[in-house]
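Researcher: I'm preparing a figure for a lab meeting and need a structural model of a single chain. I don't have an experimental structure, so a prediction will have to do for now. The sequence is pasted below. Please return the structure as tokens so I can convert it later.
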Amino acid sequence: MNYGFLTLIPPLAMLVFALKTKKSFEALIFGTLIAYIIMHGFRFIIPWCELLLSEISNADNQYILTLCGLFGGFIFLLKEAKGTLGFSNLLSRFCKSERSVLLTSIVMGIIIFVDDYLNIMTIGTCMNEVCDRRRIPRQALAYVIDSTGAPVCALIPFSTWVVFYSGVFIQEPIIQGMGFTNGMSVYLKVLPYMFYPICALLVVFLCALGSLPKLGAMKRAYRDANAREQRVEPELHNVPSVDIAMAGMATDYPPKQEAKEGNMIDFLLPIAVLIGVTIVTSNMLVAIVLALAACMLLYLPRKKMTFTRFVELFFAGFADILPVLAILLASFMIKTACGEMGLSEFVIELAAPVMNGATLPAIIFVIIAVLTFVTSSFWGIEAVAVSIVVPLALALNGNVLLTLGAVVSGGVFGSHACFYSDATVLSSATCEIDNLSHASSQLPYALISAALATLAFLIFGLVT
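Model: Understood. Here is the structure written out token by token.
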């Protein structure tokens, strides 16, 4: 069924709700309810419950939710063993200023390019305490690791993003007719036209150097950090501190003076297992399980903690991440609901009559960016969009490879900037700040990057 302009109501209602209430989970649930009321009328409740159950039982969703929960326990164990403290003590010897801290975070983000989840979780865990010591708000760190997550994974052709897009590209008969024999060869040709990831990395680099001013919510975050010497208040956490108290965890940042000791091996070895296994197996769930096993073998024999304490900390960490899992589950639901209503197809077809070969890439980038921003369905929308825009580019005598670069760039924007995308939610959770606080503080910089990318697509669309 074609719902026409009604497809725009759920995402718009959801965004207004989120901006008004500053609540992510509630806004997402509200959006799904609106969508199902439009589709099913007053009998919406049963289909809506079926949607909830289907998203919970979806294997891909279970993978993500389990992975995030296990990582919550992993972080608690690293903190209790003072592994993060030992690593932050080392980094603090070299990172003497805000510039050096943020540039180090960017470099680490580029090095850990295999997967954006691995990138975000690892660097956030590494750099939290270092930022606290230098009075750098965690919103700045969250922006850096979010900006070096999806953008880096899209630009370096050895990541999970590349595997996905290569498979999508090569399925198109038109692409095969252009002489390409495999998806990777297509991706490498499209790579120079991925202007949003390039611009996002440029902007975050300039921010780290101090060449761009602090804007909006980021400016307020810096002012607040200076006022309270970067003490992380309980209300800024994604969850109440009761879960931490259950495990006897200290919630003061920076760490108290009596906790100066910390052995780097307690951090580096589990992290090395996590990264190494991810690279070898391409399965981060296996990697986090083996990293937890490494923690047990490393901490228990040396009496860093008892087995009972180990288990208590793990479950407390898992509980600490539950609100994040709820937001992710709700984002899966709104993604499916918007897909059932045909949002992406409607918007692309609506804009098609005003496109021409020269403006097509810029318009496609803006459309995909907006769609992914309001639905968080960056990979899902791209898979649909490619089959629509490739024939469209050919019919309008446009640059097919440039248009594909616009599709990927729009997806990267969505992953980076969407208030409730998995990358945004994980960035805020890893940095232990409120999700909307992170999303709103990085949005001006994401929009600057998007404006630069749009201009680049317009220029290249005219000259190629």
